[in-house]
């Protein structure tokens, strides 16, 4: 399918593809096995300017949008979701600054993101605040020219590896979610430490840790936007980042489809390649159709968001919901097409299936995506005059 | 440091086949690439520039379409591109290529270091680099696997052999050809690719060079490629599948017959 990409978009895809094939595929199994952070691959991404993609030109970036970021994420995801989430989480951590940061904050933090010198991370989730993000308990108390943070963020991608963290904390507990604010916290700030590295089912190359704040004093100028805007910042950030998760789904589904089709062409049973059997063909046909549909939706929405559209929560949630479900189904069926071999670690699809599961869970579970879509429908139809 | 990297555009030989009837390379539809060894030379030049400052100029002699190789070199970090191109240069052998390149490089102003890949994967001669140093009357070291240090007026490099290496001081200006052990070339960057797209390719033709026509192109070349052929495939051997004892006896008899033992 030709999606009429611009020349620049084609080049982003080309370089990301080259990194995926030459630098990620040869080591992905080892990274997964050893749960090793892909620092070297991040350096390659940095050197190739992949981190510059969605950062504005005035801060050393390439001025791309969600579409360009998604293209890079898709290609990296074909090879390894653990690597691609490490890349993408940097932008999840950067979007609060990009969307709501002051000029000074942008000038201070975005250039190092664009060069890839520093990775980013985003801290919202807590032990008792997952889908119910309004239940966060981390506090930020104003004290002169500082805020003092206390609390623990859980399951933070790039935790411990990133230099720049955007964190949501309560500045006014009495106001609930409306009392939340967004802050920039730099690594090595006294009172800011990390929990142990989590052991995960998939995306094992990525680092997931707790962020622990114990009387962590940060300058008041690190407040993003205004007090009370924390959830607005978080929600708008997720609107931008969810197509990236969808792109992860498209990438890993395509990667699994590629393996499955090639295997089916070569594997012989009952005297012929198994791709000759309609049972297999139909599975592959469904996998290909759904992957393409997820890609088409992701690109369409990414372009829509980049057109500065106002209301994007619903369509952004749709990409994530659909892309994640397609990824889970396609990777599961890829294992099925490969049969016993697919279940073995020497073939890449078992890892893809383990990796894909996270897509239905993180950045808002797929159930929460349906809530977002449902709420938008209610609002939309209430506004329509019958 | 003013660095010149000489590169060659070659057919991707991993994809080239030889026409068995005419014994010529079937280049149709085969992608052209930068000679892989030259990628190491570009990378080393860019690293030297990053460490010591300066400018990297990449030079190639070839038809206008070789400009795409130069643009790729810019995407990999080179600063300027020079295309040495003229119908009069066509068909040059290694001596004439070195002669012509030397004349072109003399027009580029100060040059401290020239880097070449150890050889091209199409001709496989490894002659142009050393021959170019000879034409320019500068010292050279071939098969460099490491640059140890860069000082005023000289560099210390390691020259690779099959077993071990030599440490050599190379006075500057000088030339070196590099082997793939020297570095791991980076992938192109997005900003580099955009720079490459806009980059101006400076073309040098016959009229810009102080050369003699008698030493140019195919007619000026002292050597000729008379024939290209695929080596004959080895004849199929005999295959025995018998009792091991009998086969051993048969083998010994056979070897005795041929007076091998």
Provide an overview of this structure:
The complex is a heterodimer of chains A (386) and B (261). With 386 residues, chain A is an alpha+beta fold. In chain A, 53% of the residues lie in helices and 15% in strands. Chain A has helices at residues 7-24, 28-34, 39-47, 66-79, 81-100, 103-115, 230-266, 278-306, 313-343, 349-356, 366-383, and strands at 120-123, 139-143, 146-157, 164-170, 180-186, 192-194, 208-219, 223-224, 268-269, 272-273. Chain A has a four-stranded mixed β-sheet with strand order 1-4-5-8. In chain A, strands 2-3-7-6 form a four-stranded antiparallel β-sheet, with helices on one face. A two-stranded antiparallel sheet of chain A has the order 9-10. In chain A, strand 9 and strand 10 (272-273) form a beta hairpin. In chain A, helix 5 runs antiparallel to helix 7 (230-266) and helix 7 runs antiparallel to helix 8 (278-306). Chain A is globular, with a radius of gyration of 21 Å. Chain A starts with 6 loop residues before the first helix and ends with a helix. Chain B is of the alpha/beta class. Chain B contains seven helices and 13 strands. Chain B has helices at 36-52, 67-75, 94-106, 128-136, 190-198, 217-220, 244-257; strands spanning 2-6, 9-11, 17-19, 24-26, 32-34, 55-61, 80-84, 113-117, 140-151, 154-160, 165-171, 174-178, 201-204. In chain B, the strands form three sheets. In chain B, strands 11-10-9-12-8-1-6-7-13 form a nine-stranded mixed β-sheet. In chain B, strands 2-5 form a two-stranded antiparallel sheet. Chain B has a two-stranded antiparallel ribbon with strand order 3-4. In chain B, helix 2 runs antiparallel to helix 5 and helix 3 crosses helix 4. Chain B is globular and about 75 Å long. Chain B starts with a strand and ends with a helix.
